[in-house]
Amino acid sequence: MTVAGAGSTRILVVGSDAELASALHVHAEASGWALYSAPGPEDLEVLIRAVAPHLVVLVLPPSPGASWGSALTAVQGATRVGIRVVMVAASREVVEPLAAVAGAERALSRADVLALPDILVESRPARPSPRPFDPSRSPALVPPAPAPPPKPPAASIPVVPVSLAEGRDVPTRPPSRPSLDLMALIDEELVVEHRRPPMNARVDVNVSLVSEHNFYVGVTRRIDSGGVFIATSMPPAVGTRVQVNLGLADGRKLELEGEVAFLRGKSATTGRQPAGCGVRLHGVPGWAVDAIERFFQARLPIAYATPS
Q1: 15 near 60, Cβ under 8 Å?
Q2: pTM score > 0.90 for this model?
Q3: How far apart are CA 245 and CA 277, in angstroms?
Q4: How is residue 142 annotated by DSSP?
Q5: What is the pLDDT of residues 81-116, one digit of tens each?
Q6: Distance CA 6, CA 69 (A)
Q7: In order of start, what are the domains of the chain with their CATH numbers?
Q8: What per-residue string of b and e applies to 168-180 under the rule 16 or more CB within 10 Å gives b?
Q9: How far apart are CA 37 and CA 39, in angstroms?
Q10: Is 282 helix (H, G, I), strand (E, B) or coil?
Q11: Cα 178 from Cα 9, distance rounded (Å)
Q12: How far apart are CA 269 and CA 267, in angstroms?
């Protein structure tokens, strides 16, 4: 469907919402928009090049499939060349996280658009889009600074035995405290250190639609059974404890502790899969779990079952 006018705003609407498409078609005739529509996200990148729209409107279904992940990648590239992107879904709670992933400037509910179609062309500041992955900037796992050397014990003060005091008055000493079992304390410290290995490395990693980093999941297919896959040519050994400064696709960041669960070397890669390591994350807060699993709708995680 095309409603065209000379010098009008070209709008490409992608999605199969009949009621919304009909309302926009009627409004386009009155407003002089050049309205183009596509029933689904297939070949969206080709459509964008052919239409050269000023605005792309993605109308998401209630449960976006894998094909919408490639559509979000296509519109993310479109935003970098100045094309505005608006995303529409049944509710803002569903669409806002995906709009942040795609770099869309606005996230609207379908009720907003049906009530006021002009809301689509209202100008808003665009969200900053994630920086594309640069292989030369592969994260380096930096060992922590060495701990300062322990301070030497204070010199003890010699005590003159009473038998050598040669008759001098010796002040009465308060009763001494029971002596500590130093060897027992040392053994206890060694046990604690064995149970809690030191943090060996720290890494900054940002996961987006275009990064070589990604999340991975285990048997439950949820982030609580997995973690983050870090693309790097020099991964640490399995079992290494890592401090992860994790940047999410919506721009939020969090600091987590993790442990290297598996390695993927160059000899094991196929196609475009990079080498690196999977880091099991500990203590992921609830809001981050929700954000990460909404991100799975736009980009599928790596499936990895840790050997038992």
Answers
A1: yes
A2: no
A3: 15
A4: B
A5: 889 999 898 888 777 877 877 788 888 988 988 888
A6: 33
A7: 2-121 (3.40.50.2300), 198-303 (2.40.10)
A8: eeeeeeeeeeeee
A9: 7
A10: strand
A11: 88
A12: 6
